[in-house]
Amino acid sequence: MTSKTSRLRQTTKNIFATADICVDGARPWDIQVHDDRFYQRVLAQGSLGLGESYMNGWWDCEKLDEFFYRVLKADLHKKVKVKGVLLDVLKAKAINMQSKSRAFEVGEKHYDIGNNLYQHMLDERMVYTCGYWKDANNLNEAQESKLELTCKKLNLKPGMKVLDIGCGWGSFAKYAAERYRSRVVGVTISKEQVELGNALCTGLPVEIRLQDYRDLDEKFDRIVSLGMFEHVGPKNYKTYMKVANKCLKDDGLFLLHTIGKTDSKKTSDKWMNKYIFPNGVLPSANQITNAAKDLFVLEDWHNFGADYDKTLMAWHENFNNNWGKIKLYENYGNRFKRMWNYYLLSCAGLFRSEKGRLWQTVFSKNGVEGGYRSVR
């Protein structure tokens, strides 16, 4: 080991030590470094270098979720000065990274990579958002509980016309149509989701469209959006709320379900942006309420972010238990497997560290006569 490598190694060790993580330590959350290039890569590139070097097999960790819990709890990203951060901020301010011309990019790069992957990773209904574990014993129960909770918060009634913005494979649409006899229009930016979603909802009053939310212009009794707002972007929050306001009847309810964060930054994690969710940005509470100002009345705010930790760990277990089937269908290699495990477990660590939130908010246009009654 050269003197330069030795210095880089010691600097890296000192940084990780502040989060109670040891390089080449024996605890489940300690990391094992296999390639000395790891140190310079991480110190120069931060989260991007950390993730790419893991994908390359330069380091391992027995419990990545516990590793990230400690990394995020200790705010280690503040201790590594990465070049290009200012440029990213200026770029986010100057360019609408979630414009209509870019809107379908996340669909192509994340949701269209193979329905087989999601069928083997998710629950039986293919719900790709946080489950509700209050009275649930497994993933299927948690996701059904979340769908039921959502319907109750919306006070769904038979015959209501419902808009689902970011409908995924139609899990909510199918549930609402079967259990509440609702008529549902779902929009998504994923061709794969449209094809499979319409097939899964055959025979039901459900229509799933390949459509950007900005092109919506029709009235609905209820609007729901589960896990889509993370793709909207700060420059478009007000536009999104204006579209929802325009499409909601005067006596309607709008439920927004989104991952959130405590700060109002306009940029996202570099590794996550490059490999998992292009152009994604987590909103803050202030950004949500500011966007809704003068358009909606906030009726309810519910945080159950701890449930996302359980959900992600269940997805991680399904992914690895079914890896043999997943890789055969899509010809994924070991690099993809490492990338996907890194994604799922880093997100689990995010919610375990309480740096990530999961919010369900309910809005009305003019207030609810007699008052809105919260459901938990």
* SSE-based structural type: alpha/beta
Distance between the termini: 57 Å
What is the residue-mean pLDDT, rounded to a whole number?
A: 92
What is the annotated CATH architecture of the largest domain? 3-Layer(aba) Sandwich
The radius of gyration over CA amounts to 21 Å
The CATH homologous superfamily of the largest domain corresponds to: Vaccinia Virus protein VP39
Throw out a few tags for this protein.
45% helix, Rossmann fold, 2 domains, single chain, alpha/beta, 15% strand, two-stranded antiparallel ribbon
Question: How are the SSEs placed, and which strands pair?
Answer:
Blueprint: H1 3-17, E1 31-33, H2 37-45, H3 47-55, E2 59-61, H4 64-73, H5 85-94, H6 105-111, H7 115-121, H8 139-153, E3 161-165, H9 171-180, E4 183-188, H10 191-200, E5 206-210, E6 220-226, H11 237-247, E7 248-260, H12 270-275, H13 285-292, E8 297-303, H14 306-321, H15 323-330, H16 334-352, E9 357-364
Parallel strand pairs: 3-4, 3-6, 4-5, 6-7
Antiparallel strand pairs: 1-2, 7-9, 8-9
